[in-house]
């Protein structure tokens, strides 16, 4: 809708001017936020498909390997079912796509911490509404 476009435009405009001049505004138009767990899963699939296609000697580009190492380190879960459930639960609670990715990646321990880290949550949720969300996230996380 129009208000989403305005909000996205506002987010893009809040980038520092020196960064903004180098950014093609259309890049963010259809952007999709993913969690570290989802990124790790997608990169694992990409690497697996390429190994099958090109043989076991195939190596991913360095940037792909480094990104995969990073998201593996910070992934909340490696369980595909939990990953899907976490996204569904958070989306059903009314979190926006970017909030869902942020709260999943930051894994705050309290509603207060979540609202401090993601200020847009304060505008739409109370601490009482967010607490069960935080509790549910903790249940779906792999214990490291």
Automatic annotation (TrEMBL):
Domain called RNA polymerase Rpb4/RPC9 core: residue spans: 26-144
A Pfam family matched in the record: RNA_pol_Rpb4
Gene Ontology cellular component list: nucleus; RNA polymerase complex
Chief place of localization: nucleus
Keyword Nucleus: yes
Record's keyword terms, sorted: Nucleus
Compartments, as annotated in UniProt: Nucleus
InterPro entries for the chain: HRDC-like_sf, RNA_pol_Rpb4/RPC9_core, Rpb4-like, Rpb4/RPC9, Rpb4/RPC9_sf
Superkingdom of origin organism: Eukaryota
GO BP term, pick one: DNA-templated transcription initiation
Gene Ontology terms, MF aspect: nucleotide binding
Homology family: Belongs to the eukaryotic RPB4 RNA polymerase subunit family.
Name of the protein in question: RNA polymerase Rpb4/RPC9 core domain-containing protein
